[in-house]
Amino acid sequence: MIKKLYFCRNYYLSMQEIELKSVVKVCQMDELTSDEKHIVEMAIDATNRSYAPYSKFHVGAAVKLDNGVELAGCNQENAAYPSGLCAERTALFYAGAQYPEVGVSLLAIAARGTDGELTEEPTGPCGSCRQVIIESETRAGHPIRILLYGRKYVYVVDGIRPLMPLTFSEF
């Protein structure tokens, strides 16, 4: 990914251009470790429990915690759209509520399109979910390995920064 960043320094309108690059691995399911495959399969299964009567876009997420516990979440829509919640945040918030002192090591995301079939291409997290993943990494003190499932291939990302290189953080 190449982006242009312009900034001003010392009140001069001096522009500089920097290049930001992201590394995303592209692989097949059989190239994942057994733990990674299992978490992806949990995310796929969670798409079946999604409540998405409005968008018909069913998303599942699963996490593996540093202590080995595995949890899943799915998107939950509401007629008052801002009241719904994405699968990623459901899974991460559930993990934080049940195991507040334990970090997340793996996060997998899968989705079913409006046709009810698993998406061919991997589905990435929305901006709000990316920000929550940043906070989860900050709390854990280490990056979370992210697996984005698609029928054609799986994206493997080591930490959220490649998906959101200019992060918002208080720290």
* Number of beta-strand segments: 6
Shape field = globular
Q: What class, by secondary structure content?
A: alpha+beta
Mean pLDDT value: 91
Strand adjacency order, main sheet: 1-6-5-4-2-3
The share of residues in extended strands comes to 15-25%
What's the tally of helices? 3
The helix content, as a percent range, equals: 10-25%
Low-confidence stretches: 1-9
Rg measurement, Å:
17 Å
Biggest sheet architecture: 6 strands, mixed
SSE string, helix = H, strand = E? EHEEHEHEE
**End-to-end span in angstroms?**
25 Å
How would you briefly describe this protein structure?
By secondary structure, the protein is an alpha+beta fold.
Strand and helix map with partners:
Blueprint (H helix, E strand, L loop, with lengths): L24 E3 L6 H13 L11 E8 L4 E5 L12 H12 L5 E9 L14 H14 L4 E5 L4 E5 L13
Parallel strand pairs: 4-5
Antiparallel strand pairs: 1-6, 2-3, 2-4, 5-6
Give a written overview of the molecule.
The chain is an alpha+beta fold. It contains three helices and six strands; from the N terminus they run E-H-E-E-H-E-H-E-E. The protein has helices at 34-46, 87-98, 127-140; strands spanning 25-27, 58-65, 70-74, 104-112, 145-149, 154-158. A six-stranded mixed sheet has the order 1-6-5-4-2-3. Strand 4 (104-112), helix 3 (127-140) and strand 5 (145-149) form a beta-alpha-beta unit. The longest helix has 14 residues, at 127-140. It starts with 24 loop residues before the first strand and ends in a 13-residue tail after the last strand.
